[in-house]
Design brief:
The structure holds two protein chains of two kinds. By secondary structure, chain A is mostly helical. Chain A is 77% helix and 0% strand. Chain A is built from 14 helices and no strands. In chain B, 76% of the residues lie in helices and 0% in strands. The chains are: A mainly alpha, B mainly alpha.
Chain lengths: 337, 294
């Protein structure tokens, strides 16, 4: 198991190197002169020259790349032009908000999609099966920002069940004392039930939006792989031996059907991390996505670069985690490694 | 033999295609509906600006934020512009972005993939490495970064959408070219003295083409979603240009105060377009490759 994880870690290194090179090239692809760009619109030629020297832009590309890598190793992602704050600090402060939202969205999505897929597969052509098909076709067609807005309209404006889509917590509440940065967990640690409910209310709609979006591939894959497993010989044998339907479906079939579902999670994460940006914009969520969007609109490139790099690093790490999980679920993968 | 030779081959192929299409549509009426929607979208893209009742850019503040009525089918926005006219006119831009990015990625990814699969060696390694690197990013995030770096224009949205789809096309084209590399007809062409490039152009490409065309229609939906998402966060398309993503963004502020039509209709149009492309892609795949039916 340990060798497998180590091997997989080694395999992630080329991806990370690629990510670093691409984010570096993106800055150098900025239109016009990056020095003039970083110096601001009102800079004199002399000031631009100073910025050029300061940023090391007068040196050859490979030396610049070296500086970039050294900065990265020191955790230095540059400084935002609009806020004057180091990008790394801001990303670090805002990451828990995004992570809490994305994880909750994924959990909600799995909790709905996996049972739906299993039920659809055990009863083909039933109402549930059709529901599963509709959900998985509609889910991929719905623009995530549109779903979010419809949910806001229905649950906030029409029904009044949800709070205004303005951030992580109602203005009348103070955020819980920071331990993990996840408001749900922090408020539980502080034994503050009111804050927990308040932050759950704010989280509910954006998380549901993300869940609807990621439901489709998970439900589809669960259904397909359950169908394949249920028609296999060992399930037939288990049934013939008189095991209960529950044991056959959950213990025998589902454990085997999980493997392709875990593989799909990689793709789901790619979509989720992107959709996160849009959902954060709809719900004024103070995460790293809305930070990047604000910076984008202000043509402030350092935060965008830091954001792209963080997201890519997270995605590489998540894929790593999925592969390890795959090894935990399927012992054959461990044996091969 | 004489029967086949007697009938004009081109017409019979076309007739067979029509017959086959009718069979597929008859078997799966959803594909028929999707095709009808597709025709509607293409017509709106072609003639939209000429048939709409109002100028999509003309504001009339006296008529601002009016709900849907007989005069304004989809209501009016905060500047009193007719939402229906704007939604219809926007079809052209959204359709153009989707088609342009898909054609671009077809050329980039398709050709790179076919070359990688056919020649193997260093071309294969470079194309594979590029695809892997792109795949290491969450795709929408990479698209944001590309548009931010290249500049905030519609053209760059097309380029970014094409780049994030590159790995998909390159991999499919590579796999399809690779399995045909040593096929009998390729060997025959090589033995009769054709150069590698000639074989690639006249033997391999025509075989890989239909599979990539299906892929194009399958990714159209994603391309249009990606582009609308980028313009929703304020990239690419600038107001007051009518475009679905930016219209939803502009209308989103009014959703909390109950003026739902501003964001609902462009969002709905976007959803229907994506739905239509996805279904059409599935139908087309059934036609070209019945084995992959799900």
């Amino acid at each position: 198991m340990l060798t497998m994880i180590l091997k997989r870690l080694l395999m992630a290194i080329p991806s990370l190197i690629g990510v670093v090179i691409v984010t570096f090239l993106l800055t150098r692809a900025l239109p016009g002169d990056p020095a003039a760009y970083f110096a601001g619109p009102a800079a004199t030629p002399q000031a631009i020259q100073e910025v050029r020297v300061k940023l090391g832009l007068d040196k050859p590309l490979i030396v610049q790349f070296g500086h970039y890598v050294v900065d990265l190793v020191h955790g230095n992602l540059g400084t935002s032009l609009t806020t004057g704050q180091p990008v790394a600090t801001e990303l670090h402060n805002r990451l828990p908000a995004s992570a809490e939202l994305t994880l909750l969205g994924l959990i909600v999505s799995i909790v709905i999609a996996v049972p739906l897929g299993i039920l659809a597969a055990t009863k083909p052509n039933s109402i549930l099966d059709h529901a599963c098909r509709i959900v998985s076709t509609a889910g991929v067609s719905l623009p995530v920002f549109f779903t979010g807005l419809i949910l806001v309209y229905v649950f906030y404006y029409l029904l009044g069940w949800a709070p205004a889509p303005l951030g992580r917590i109602d203005v009348f509440y103070l955020p819980p004392p920071q331990v993990t940065g996840f408001y749900l967990i922090d408020s539980l640690i502080a034994r503050d039930g009111d804050t927990f409910i308040a932050s759950l209310k704010q989280l509910f709609l954006p998380a549901l939006t993300l869940a609807i979006f990621s439901l489709a591939p998970i439900a589809r894959m669960t259904r397909a792989s359950m169908l394949a497993v249920l028609s296999s010989d060992f399930v037939r044998t288990a049934r013939a031996s008189g095991l209960s339907a529950y044991t056959v479906i959950i213990t025998y079939a589902f454990r085997n059907a999980m493997l392709p579902v875990i593989t799909t999670l990689g793709m789901v994460f790619s979509f989720l991390l992107g959709a996160n940006v849009l959902v954060e914009k709809v719900f004024a969520w103070p995460g790293i996505g809305s930070y990047a969007v604000e910076a984008l609109l202000a043509s402030d490139f350092a935060p965008v670069q830091g954001f792209v790099l963080t997201m890519a690093a997270l995605y590489v790490a998540l894929n790593l985690l999925i592969d390890v999980l795959y090894g935990v679920v399927d012992p054959r993968v461990r044996l091969e490694a | 033999m004489t029967d086949i030779a007697a009938s004009p081959p081109r017409e019979s192929a076309l007739a067979a295609l029509i017959k086959h299409s009718r069979y597929i549509i008859g078997e799966n009426p959803v594909t028929g509906i999707a095709f009808a929607l597709f025709v509607l979208i293409v017509l709106a893209a072609m003639f939209g600006p000429h048939i709409v009742p109002y100028d999509p850019l003309a504001s009339d503040t006296a008529q601002s934020l009016k709900p849907p009525s007989a005069h304004h089918w989809f209501g009016t926005d905060q500047l009193g512009r007719d939402v229906f006219s704007r939604v219809v006119v926007a079809t052209r831009l959204d359709f153009f972005i989707a088609v342009a990015s898909v054609v671009l990625v077809f050329l980039m990814g398709g050709l790179a993939g076919v070359a990688a699969g056919f020649f193997g060696g260093w071309i294969d390694r470079i194309v594979g490495r590029i695809a892997d690197t792109i795949m290491a990013f969450p795709l929408f995030v990479l698209a944001m970064g590309i548009v931010a770096a290249l500049g905030n224009t519609v053209q760059n949205i097309v380029i970014a959408t094409a780049i994030v789809n590159f790995p998909l096309y390159a991999r499919i084209a590579r796999a399809e070219a690779n399995i045909r590399r040593d096929a009998g007809f390729v060997e025959a062409a090589r033995l009769s003295g054709n150069s590698d490039w000639r074989i690639l152009a006249f033997q391999i490409l025509p075989n890989v083409f239909p599979i990539l065309v299906v892929q194009m229609s399958l990714t159209m939906g994603y391309a249009i979603l990606n582009a609308a998402g980028l313009s929703f966060i304020g990239l690419g398309v600038r107001p007051p240009t009518p475009e679905w993503g930016i219209m939803v963004a502009e209308g989103s502020a009014f959703m909390v105060s109950g003026e739902w039509w501003n964001a609902f209709f462009p969002g709905g149009a976007l959803m229907i377009a994506v739905f239509c492309f996805n279904l059409l892609g599935d139908g087309l795949r059934d036609m070209v490759d019945p084995r992959r039916r799900t």
